[in-house]
Design goal:
Length: 324
């Protein structure tokens, strides 16, 4: 089919295809821009289809009017994106900025969480701080107690007189083996200084005094370890409760917004899972150090009982010598 072309910077080419479709092509030779529109024609291309080149289309408003006139001349009512003014307007239109990525920091997840989930997180945070305070205190206590027992055993078995050792330790606050020794020697001296005529039952009294002292020492060593056991066993379940509540709230929000995209689902799920993570952060060290401290308390209790038996044998031997 013949093609009508106008010279100049802006020209329109119109031709009719054999299947009755008309192809209109706008070309801006100066800017290298071309736009094509394809629509149903109303007859063959003729002189009536040709309009003057839209030289006044440099302005946005005049170009739009000339495009409408061209469309009416073609009989197709085309005022779509093929218009050159519309092409230039599309180029001048600013690009949309991509949405900022979601903030998944711990602080942001905490602030965006549900009120119930926040309470769970705060409780687990407080429990974690409490657990670490107990861990540090017990670590120092067991280390100090072990050093004191080693030092006392070295002095006790050095051959020093029991009376001299008792006078040295009597005015102090004693724990561990020193506490057992001072308690037994105090009962011994009370018996002799009280003028008791018979030493019958002294062994039983000494054993009871040392057993009570051992029980107090073990209680001191195991104090607050129940907190570690409780946090270690209940912490993950408390965190799981916060997770379940957060996921339930997220699903309600998804149902309300009717949007199941990952960008909508991910923040709520991350907030909920943070509660489980905090529960594990509190529970894991509590469980590990509870087992460690219970084991150390058992070993130190065995050392105390062993010393009590040895010291009871020494005192019993002296009682027998006194009877003889």
């Amino acid at each position: 089919m013949p093609v009508k072309v106008w010279t100049g910077s802006l020209a329109q080419r119109a031709r009719e295809t054999p299947d009755g479709l008309r192809l209109r092509r706008w070309t801006d030779a100066g800017r290298g821009i071309a736009h094509e529109t394809l629509h149903h024609g109303h007859g063959s291309a003729s002189g009536s289809d040709i309009v003057p080149p839209p030289d006044a289309a440099r302005g946005a408003g005049h170009g739009a009017e000339r495009g409408a006139a061209d469309s009416r001349a073609d009989g197709a009512g085309d005022s779509g994106p093929g218009h050159p003014a519309a092409g230039r307007a599309a180029l001048r239109r600013p690009r949309r900025r991509a949405p900022a990525p979601a903030d998944f920091s711990f602080l942001s997840l905490f602030l965006q969480a549900h009120f119930v989930v926040k309470l769970v997180m705060l409780g687990l945070m407080a429990a974690s701080i409490w657990v670490w305070a107990i861990i540090i205190d017990k670590w120092m206590l067991f280390s100090r107690n072990k050093r004191e027992m080693d030092r006392f055993e070295q002095v006790f078995w050095s051959g020093q007189s029991l009376e001299d050792l008792y006078r040295t330790l009597a005015g102090r606050s004693n724990h561990g083996m020193a506490g057992i020794f001072v308690a037994a020697m105090r009962e011994w001296k009370r018996t002799y200084e009280g003028g008791a005529r018979s030493l019958a039952g002294l062994n039983q009294r000494l054993d009871k005094v040392m057993n009570v002292t051992i029980a107090r020492e073990v209680e001191r060593l195991e104090s607050r370890l129940l907190v570690l056991a409780t946090v270690g066993s209940a912490g993950p379940f408390i965190g799981l409760f916060g997770t379940v509540w957060g996921i339930m709230t997220s699903f309600q929000s998804i149902a309300a917004s009717k949007n199941t995209s990952l960008a909508v689902v991910a923040p709520g799920i991350a907030e909920a899972l943070l509660a489980t993570a905090m529960g594990l952060i509190a529970a894991i060290p509590a469980t590990i150090f509870y087992n460690k401290f219970i084991s150390q308390a058992g070993r130190q209790a065995q050392r105390l009982e062993g010393f009590a038996d040895e010291f009871s044998a020494i005192l019993s031997r002296q009682i027998d010598e006194q009877k003889g």
